[in-house]
Amino acid sequence: MPEEIRIITEVFSANDAIARQNQELLNQRGVYAVDLIASPGAGKTSLIEQTLKQLSPRFRISVVNGDLATQLDKERAEAAGAKAVNINTGGECHLDANMVRGALSSLDLSSFDLILIENVGNLICPASFKLGAHHLVVIASVPEGDDKPYKYPGTFAQADAVLLNKIDLLPYVPFNKERFIKGVKLLNPRADIIEISCLTGFGISKWCEWLVWRMAEIKSSNNRE
Amino acid sequence: MPEEIRIITEVFSANDAIARQNQELLNQRGVYAVDLIASPGAGKTSLIEQTLKQLSPRFRISVVNGDLATQLDKERAEAAGAKAVNINTGGECHLDANMVRGALSSLDLSSFDLILIENVGNLICPASFKLGAHHLVVIASVPEGDDKPYKYPGTFAQADAVLLNKIDLLPYVPFNKERFIKGVKLLNPRADIIEISCLTGFGISKWCEWLVWRMAEIKSSNNRE
Questions:
Q1: What is the pTM (predicted TM-score) of this model?
Q2: ipTM given for this complex
Q3: SS3 state of residue B150
Q4: Buried b / exposed e across B110-121, counting CB within 10 Å, b at 16+?
Q5: What's the number of CA atoms in the CB half-sphere (13 Å) around residue A86?
Q6: Could you count the other beta carbons within 10 Å of the beta carbon of residue A28?
Q7: Could you tell me if A59 lies within 8 Å of chain B, comparing CB atoms?
Q8: For residue A40, is pLDDT > 80?
Q9: How many CB atoms lie within 10 A of CB A1?
Q10: CA pair distance A46, A165, nearest whole angstrom
């Protein structure tokens, strides 16, 4: 095996082993976690704010924010009332399982029901690194264009849910919703597609229902084991 | 030096050497090239379409499209009348100098004045790989939010120009233009900032003037050598 490929294979397999340990730890503590992946500016932080607003009265939620250089997203999650942990990746283009392990170790996990992991803004690299979260949610947004599933297939193919955000901008930009949905379905027939607007609140209840339902499934499956 | 750092350093230095060769080749052939970097959906392909529309009557333009998996952007550049070359990165998150060397070798360079290189949609990784282009242009867009320079400093710090696209969406989304501009200026006082809308055509003439001016500067500097 060429040197470069050997090293890359070793990196992924080491990452996956730590991701499995992260998920075991979450299961032992009864915590459900989702990994949120999106382009810069698709609305990950706004989605977290809306989710906190709707679900904080019923669930104990923590946020793990991956960021290249700042703490801006962590500050927004804290302003929305969550216990938040910042992972400064120092320029690295994705979170990895080891970074998340560090973040989890700084939380008293038994105090939380749900952890929202906000990955670095990047529609490519984060999908290659499992973190140990139970589900992967991709957030796309209307102004990014209807061709995104076709152009970033690796990420959309792995999503458990695809949120189509900024649906309020449909009247103002060229966007063929059928083409977008067809692209997602072609790559990934099992992904749920939910239209939302973090600006107006449209669809946020439906997304929160999805989240609560999936959390219940995972917790019930863990209780049976 | 640890093994991983040694390999990464070698990768960058090998890439930079090829980038310098690419630029020498472009200079010998009298071709000016820009590297266009942006998030997915910020408007790189639309910008290329608008630029072709405005400058094709005066200059011979080729487009090099970096894409993870499809040829969609190349097809749009061709439909707009350009000779286009697709680089399918096979999932790789950025163009590198060696990929661009391959693309340049497939073009009769002396037939062109200007090459627009459309990098992979990613606001992080492409900035680490010089391609041999004379200038780096970053395209941001209003719906991505005014915090982008602060959150992706490595890319904005290297830009020769920052285009703020989708300015027509200002009435519909929260965006503090002063905060955005302040962020760019803090990181990079020398970058020109140009507001555009590839949908309405606003600012495209100003951008094309920038491009023609820079092309003239580079060509005149090469002629003096």
A1: 0.94
A2: 0.92
A3: helix
A4: eebbbbbbbbbb
A5: 14
A6: 11
A7: no
A8: yes
A9: 8
A10: 10
Place of tokens 């939302």: A196
* Residue A185: CB atoms within 10 Å: 14
pLDDT given for residue A195 in this prediction: 98
Q: How big is chain B, counted in residues?
A: 225
Using only C-alpha atoms, chain A has a radius of gyration, in whole angstroms, of 17
Cβ neighbours of residue A166 closer than 8 Å, sequence gap 6 or more: A42, A43, A141, A142, A143, A197, A198, A199, B143, B173
Quick: pLDDT tens for B92-142. Answer: 999 999 999 999 999 999 999 999 999 999 999 999 999 999 999 999 999
- Smallest CA–CA separation between A129 and chain B, in Å? 14
Contact A120, A35 (CB under 8 A): no
Report yes or no: B154 at the A interface, CB cutoff 8 Å: yes
Q: pLDDT category, A44, cuts 50, 70, 90?
A: very high
- Asked if B147 and A120 come within 8 Å (Cβ–Cβ), the reply is no
CA A14 to chain CA centroid, nearest Å = 21
Residue A131 identity: L
**Bridge partners, residue B63, by sequence:** B84, B116
Nearest to A151 among B4, B72, B166 (CB): B72
Q: Judge contact between B138 and B187, C-beta under 8 A.
A: no
Which of B15, B49, B68, B168 to substitute to test the interface with A, most A CBs within 10 Å? B68
Note the pLDDT tens digit of each residue in A95-121: 999 999 999 999 999 999 999 999 999
